[in-house]
Design a protein that fits this description.
single chain; about 475 residues; alpha/beta; 7-stranded parallel β-sheet; 6-stranded parallel β-sheet; 13 strands; about 45% helix
Length: about 475
């Protein structure tokens, strides 16, 4: 047994995964100064969360430990496959983490607990080997966790990949066969109908449809590295001593209540930006100053699709056209490289009611009274930040949990709208902005989301559910037993 608690923290170094994990570690370290937290992550990923690392500089009990990302010196990418880097990283596991952990133990002492991103389920095996508890953070929402938890049942009920196989075989016949064309059209209509079927096999996820599932659950290649990574996560969840969520009791009760019957301990301790606040983000581009000058409350569309995803160029252009036609004020966080896809003259024509910046302090923007709707990809962290700020959403999901969360947002919580058929169009943007910002339905959405905001604030207050859950987590994490 170690003399003092030493928590090994395994990060998944892609997308927005590392940031919430280090945010949680920061709060744990502040609450347990006698414990040491070794944060194992790649150099590149640490560079993307430099501001959070800087906020930990005064905490002597947070150690940043480098992990090899699996990329050999001089390696040239084979193509534009976005999963290539992930696959190289997975091939390097678990040896890269074992080596980093060995170094951490040599300088800090034996590990007493392993805390990891849920994607890093290899942490469960490492924790078992050294005889310590494993706790995991689900960086996605509870609905996504439930979907992955029932991966095998969903595959058995719906099937895996038959549509792609049939499509491929039929297309090969289309050139010479009118019969094949007829069969293809019949199959297409039947498949579309199946995609719209409700997930009756997992009642806690209703009214989610087959089309709302994370793609990896029904992928044709269930043996691909990424599909195996997510399936492994699903099988390991029940083994964790606790599964932590950046959520709060009262946000999606049916799903959280169900998960509490399937997991050893289900601990919503968020919203993180309220329960574990970081230093205020600097307003380097004057977004807040610009919002301060606007005369009407809840009149601005704040547009941001996060740091990873962006709509395809035609959809980005359609979004701009819809914003322009709507007449709404807008603040758009848009990477410089994507501006070339805006319609010609758009910036000049809308300069009196719009501001485009390369980055905005999102949590501060969402709390500004001028903001009336958040146009988002519906990533979990952004979704929770918007709800806890009392701002309804207009969603264009891309991947992962985003589809199912968009569905829940619209059909269950009633605080947002999803892009029709998952695609942004000029007409759809105009109609959605008009409904949310101007019509009675939008007023109802604001009332609902403000009610959820109040629940979030209560959860992180002294004695609130998230505060109590965090205390349980803290005791579990720093225990030497």
């Amino acid at each position: 047994m170690a003399a003092t608690p030493h928590v090994a923290v395994l990060a998944f170094p892609f997308g927005s995964h590392a940031a919430p994990l280090l945010t949680l570690v920061r709060k744990l370290a502040m609450s347990a100064p006698s414990a040491t937290f070794s944060f194992l992550n790649t150099i590149k990923s640490n560079g993307s969360i430099a501001s959070i690392i800087a906020s930990c500089a005064s905490l002597s009990n947070v150690k940043i430990c480098d992990v090899w990302d699996g990329v050999e010196e001089g390696y040239v990418p084979k193509g534009r496959n976005p999963l290539e880097a992930i696959e190289l990283f997975l091939k390097a596991m678990p040896g890269n983490f074992r080596e980093a952990l060995r170094k951490a133990v040599a300088t800090t002492g034996d590990v007493t607990c392993v805390l990891s991103d849920a994607f890093m389920w290899i942490a469960e095996e490492m924790a078992t080997e050294i005889g310590v508890p494993w706790v995991t953070l689900a960086t996605a929402g509870p609905a996504s966790v439930a979907a992955h938890l029932y991966t095998d049942l969903i595959r058995e009920t719906i099937g895996v990949g038959e549509g792609k196989i049939l499509l491929s075989s039929l297309l090969s016949l289309l050139i010479s066969s009118k019969v094949a064309l007829t069969l293809f059209l019949f199959w297409f209509l039947e498949s579309k109908s199946k995609l719209d079927e409700l997930l009756n096999c997992v009642p806690c996820l209703l009214p989610a449809r087959v089309r709302d599932l994370p793609h990896e659950i029904l992928t044709a290649d269930v043996n691909s590295p990424f599909a195996c990574l997510l399936h492994g996560k699903a099988t390991k969840f029940p083994l964790a001593k606790a599964v932590v969520f950046n959520s709060f009791d009262g946000l999606d009760p049916p799903i959280l209540n169900h998960l509490k019957t399937k997991l050893q301990k289900c601990l919503p301790v968020g919203p993180f930006h309220l329960s574990a606040p970081l230093p205020p983000e600097p307003d380097v581009h004057g977004s807040l100053t610009w919002l301060d000058r606007l005369p009407s409350p809840a009149s601005v569309a704040y547009v941001s699709f996060g740091t990873v995803m962006s709509p395809p160029p035609p959809e980005l252009a359609a979004l701009a056209e819809g914003i322009e036609a709507s007449g709404a004020y807008f603040l758009w966080s848009l990477r410089d490289a994507a501006r070339a896809n805006l319609p010609e003259g758009f910036v000049e024509r809308t300069k009196d009611r719009g501001l485009i910046v390369s980055w905005a302090p999102q949590t501060r923007v969402l709390l500004h009274p001028a903001v009336g709707v958040f146009v988002t990809h519906c990533g979990w962290n952004s979704m929770v930040e918007s709800i806890a700020s009392g701002v309804p959403m207009m969603c264009r999901p891309f991947l992962g949990e985003q589809m199912i969360m968009s569905r829940m947002l619209e059909e269950v919580m009633g605080v947002g709208l999803a892009a029709k058929d998952g695609v942004l169009t000029k007409e759809g943007v105009v109609d959605s902005l008009d409904l949310i910002l101007q019509k009675a339905e939008g007023k109802t959405m604001r009332e609902k989301v403000k009610a959820l905001k109040a629940i979030a604030e209560e959860a992180v207050s002294e004695g609130g559910s998230s505060t109590r859950n965090f205390q349980s987590l803290l005791e579990m994490i720093v225990s030497k037993a």
